[in-house]
Amino acid sequence: MSVIVTLRAPNIRKYFTFRPYSTMEWTLPKLVKRILPPLDGTLHKGQAGRIGIVGGSLEYTGAPYFAGISALKVGADLLHIFCSTPAASVIKSYSPELIVHPLLDQPNAIDKITPWLERLHVLVIGPGLGREIDTFTVVSQLIKLIGVKQIPLIIDADGLFLITEKPELLENFSSPVILTPNKIEFERLYNKLSTSAGLAELGKNVTILRKGQTDELLCYHSNLQWKINTGGSGRRCGGQGDILSGSIATFLHWAINSSNKIEIGVNVDKMLLLSSLSCFAAAKLVRLCNEKAFKAKGRSMLAVDMIEYIHESFQELYEN
Which pairing describes strands 226-228 and 215-218: parallel, antiparallel, or unpaired? Predict the structure, then answer.
């Protein structure tokens, strides 16, 4: 029996009918364990994930690093960052694990980025992107190309600002799209989409992970929605959302690669199920990392401290 949850925004009520969250919260952890790639020597480099991050600007170099290194720490094999020229050397200096392409501000940027897209399993757009008009022009073209090539896409931070200004960029996407807004970003997006269709205007393949004290998954199919408020802390330092978006990217590739193992006994869109599962896996992981780092560091906790707990938290949640 469905349960209707009253929300402040009438368009959300129109678009989303909520079911009891306990069912999905009980089912999803078991499904996460099914998608983990084996560490038995049967895979070659790249099969566990080739992830692309689109972001990094003169002002913001930490965000793409946090997203990228988190994707790798969760278990992806290769990580590419497509950034503007001033950010490249700085990002490279953070870690030798990151493959950095200073292309966003180059002439014919799309022509230079396109050959790399064929190699990538999932793209994350937004961490440290900035809001330069020329950058948004390139990224708008890139999103259209990603839609044509049907590459799974996660959009965060300034990428969400672009989508709020141009929601039509997500029209006709047949591959998964995950948006990860915080409270302010969600309200900005909702106010932009103040039509009778509400958030449905974004498309049926779009999943929204609304971040906050309680993380909440919103999507077109009510059976796939959930809330999480376990773990975490009161510390709101920058970079936590970037850790989340990078983690989602790795889990999303794994989920798609293991889609034949994922069923919940209800007739739902498989790609929406995989998006919901990936967001759940990453949200649980990041919230536990936050809890552990805060216990150790308290008010001094930074995003970099959370990254140190990815392995421990992953094992505790999904491998023990």
Answer: antiparallel
Q: Which token pair is 266?
A: 């209800």
Start-to-end C-alpha separation, the chain:
34
Two tokens at 107?
């002439």
Whose tokens are 């990078």? That residue is 246
CA torsion 192-195-201-207 (nearest 10°) is: 60
- Long-range pairs for 161-168 at CB < 8 Å and ≥24 separation? 161/131, 161/185, 161/188, 162/129, 162/136, 163/189, 164/188, 164/189, 164/192, 165/136, 165/192, 166/140, 167/192, 167/193, 167/201, 167/202
Q: Containing H/E element for 146?
A: helix 133-149
Beta bridge partners of 79: 51, 98
pTM of the model: 0.93
Return the structure tokens found at 284. Answer: 């649980």
The secondary element (H helix, E strand) that includes residue 172 is none
Side-chain-facing half-sphere of 182: CA atoms under 13 Å:
11
> What is the distance between the alpha carbons of residues 116 and 39, in angstroms, rounded to a whole number?
27
Residues 24 and 224: beta-carbon distance below 8 Å:
yes
Which pLDDT tens digit goes with each residue over 111-152? Answer: 999 999 999 999 999 999 999 999 999 999 999 999 999 999
133-149 vs 109-117: helix crossing angle, rounded to 10:
30
Query: What residue ranges in 160-203 does DSSP mark as E strands?
Result: 177-179
Task: Please state, in angstroms and rounded to a whole number, the distance separating the CA atoms of residues 57 and 228.
Answer: 32
Query: How far apart, in whole angstroms, are the C-alpha atoms of residue 305 and residue 258?
Result: 31
CB atoms within 10 A of CB 238: 12
If you count them, how many residues does the chain have? 320
Q: How far apart are CA 39 and CA 123, in angstroms?
A: 24
- Residues 88-113: tens digit of each pLDDT: 999 999 999 999 999 999 999 999 99
Q: Rounded distance, CA 227 to CA 209, Å?
A: 10
21 three-state secondary structure: helix
